[in-house]
Amino acid sequence: MAGRAVGPMAGRDAARIGEGLARARDRIAVACQAAGRPASDVRLLLAAKEQSAGAIRAAIVAGACLIGENRVQELAAKGPALADLPHRAHVIGPLQSNKINAALRWASCVETVDTLRLAERLAARAGARPGGIGVMVQVNTSGEPTKSGVEPAAAADLACRVAGLPGLRLEGFMTVGLNSDRAAAVARSYAALREIRDAVVASGAPGATGAVDLSMGMSGDLEIAIAEGATIVRLGTAVFGPRPRRDGTLGR
Ligand SMILES: *Cc1c(COP(=O)(O)O)cnc(C)c1O
Known about the structure:
The chain is an alpha/beta fold. The protein has helices at 11-35, 53-61, 72-82, 100-106, 116-126, 152-163, 183-203, 222-227, 237-240; strands at residues 43-47, 66-69, 88-91, 109-113, 133-138, 168-174, 213-215, 232-235, 243-244, 250-251. Pyridoxal-5'-phosphate (PLP) binds next to strand 8 and helix 9.
């Protein structure tokens, strides 16, 4: 690999990220086997918030092909530095209407649609983009008031409406699971997302039959999410190590 391919990252940092990615892939493979699912069922999305373009580049060079950013500003800022590498990007944080154009420019999917209003605004602009844009409906499966997402009881109805909007391709459902070390409770929140997905796909609503993806599970609980049917796990610390905190110490 040419030195340029890893940009300003020191070789040992790039190697450490490559090792993190390999370990994360191993965890996914083991979890898939335990769940009786083929490893090809589950895609690894690199949660890239606060990581430099060089660190993300190292992960893509090491084989990651799907990245996620919480903030569209970060996606747009790092996009040019990664444009020469084959990969796709998903928006995995709240999308403000004034960032829709940037999201359309840099992302192939917005995982965080949780109101019809946002979906309609996205649809109004997405028509100009060939193939439109992928979307997922974000569901607040944990009931924690700090979390984004439509409430579970309203999720299927919202998804069916979103699926019918021109310019949008409903690809599935996303949740940030319950933040708890009680595995059974975490599993219930992921099962709830799967049940919503199954109901929407079975509804036969126009545009809904392809909504099969379940984006759920992070570094701390990917095994639980895969057991409950995740098709995308969003991993940050498992690949990159602990994120630097503003005060310079290491944290989650
Ligand atoms: C940060 C983040 C992740 C990844 O979290 P880790 O614990 O670092 O794996 C996944 N999803 C969302 C929405 C995030 O903000």
